[in-house]
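Record format v2
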Amino acid sequence: MHFVVCAKQIPDPETPPSAFKIDAATNEVVPAQGFQPVLSQFDGIAAEAALRIKEAAGDDTKITVLSMGAESAQAAIKQVLAMGADEGVLLQDDAFDNGDSHTTAKVLAAAIKNLGDVDAVFCGRQAADWDMGQVGLLIAEALEWPVAILAKDVQIADATMTTTRVLADGFETVAQPLPAVVTVSNEFGEPRYPKLQQIMQAAKKTVTTQTHGDLGLDPSEVGAAGARLKLEKLFIPVVDGQVELIEGDTPEEQAKNLVAKLEADKVF
Amino acid sequence: MARNILVVGELDEGALSSTTAELVGQASRLADGGQVSVTLLGAGASGAASAAFEAGADRAFTSDDAGYNDYNSDSWVAAVENAFGQAGAEAVFVAQSVVGRDMGPRIAARQGSAAAMDCVNVEDDGGELKATRSAYGGNALATYSFAASPAVATIRAKAFDPIEPRAGASGETVDLGAAGESRTTITGRELAESEGLQIQDATIVVSGGRGLGGPEGFESVEALAAAFGTNRAAVGASRAACDLGWYPVSQQVGLTGKVVTPDLYVAIAISGASQHMAGCSGSKMIIAINRDPDANIFANSKYGIVGDYKAVLPALIEAVKAAG
């Protein structure tokens, strides 16, 4: 079988709020000093899901990692290759910049079509920067494949993808014919950490770069030109930050003082 | 400018869900003379139409077919597309739920437009719809306009108040027929035991985080909730605590969990990462108990106690019981 893992490089979500800055003129996040961009954590989990299926099958399943992004996104691709994926494709083109979920999915779907023989696509439940959670669904729509979102478990056998999905009040198991798309949630579990030897092996694996021409896409249908959702304003919400710390010589006294405040505020 | 809006409704045990009433209400505020339509699918749908009319809808596209009871992507999308074709809406609103997360992008894709996900506001800005949503794990808010029609927005629960019910209001009901084919077969369902109060319905939520140090820490978190009263207080947990297996995922509060808007939110040993705040910042009051005086949670809280929860909670439980 041939699996695709979609991987996005994002600003480190562990950046503390105090170091999070936005350039109001460009509506872009200012890279925080001392924080390197990282692989979106849900995409690492998606890679883990694909790898576990490959290992359980014990066959020659090939895993290709796709990333749309700048040259620096090579690092995200290399990370998934070090985890155990076989090949990488960087979709890099100035024409892809400042798009939306729709144009991102268009580029990824075109790349998946180019690969030709893909059986399943694994995406994170959402990119941990924009938190939209649409690209996996939109790839499926573009390819006219079924899709299951928010997976906490996924199995593939006999040309069927079986996914256990997270619901608001429990879990649901669904079966869909291949080829199919799945988006994987944090409930799946932690991704593996590559060993040093795997990181060194990953450096030798093939990563090709493709542009809109390679994908048969017109610049007018991708990036900012093709976007249907226009970012008008990106800003940091104001919190009043006026916390009143409750004093007291003992925890008992602090607790009594806090409850007195809550009573005065008519919480009870 | 008048605009028609289609709301993808959801039923909660056969009745109109509270979030659907909120979405229909906001749609009626934004319609400006246009028609508000709602789809209602599954057992109880046609019966729930009157509640939708009272909540602000003019027209209901319904099907009582039990084939719609469990959300199934393909059959639901086909039904909503059918309703959309008849209603001709300039905007489609869906809750940011199991339904909306799946359906929002798919409806947008099929209509050649775009979806803004998990919106906290959708407003009319000089005749144009603008949607605002959180991004970067709640660190930022982003406002979008739509370059294609219909504007599809999935909307966070409690983002809008419902309108004052229009008692006795009526409207047109259109039957959508039976559920069609789907590529997806639902083979199993495992619902969490709903013990008493649901976290979204609680007026007080007491949540624990990674700083509890282990699952046993939740015993005192639960004891504090019980002291407030099990009829109004429920227990939540941060994603870190759920990912560590300390507490059920169904109780997770945050961007990847549930959004709660209680009168009082008590955050115990929770650092207050933006992704957590995205799930509780709509609370009327937040109080925090944390050992770290620099924890971000304090910046979002009205009251705070700097201290070890192991010392503070037993005292607080007694004080709450005494006040109760």
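The mean pLDDT of chain A is 95.
Chain A touches chain B through 79 residues (CB under 8 Å).
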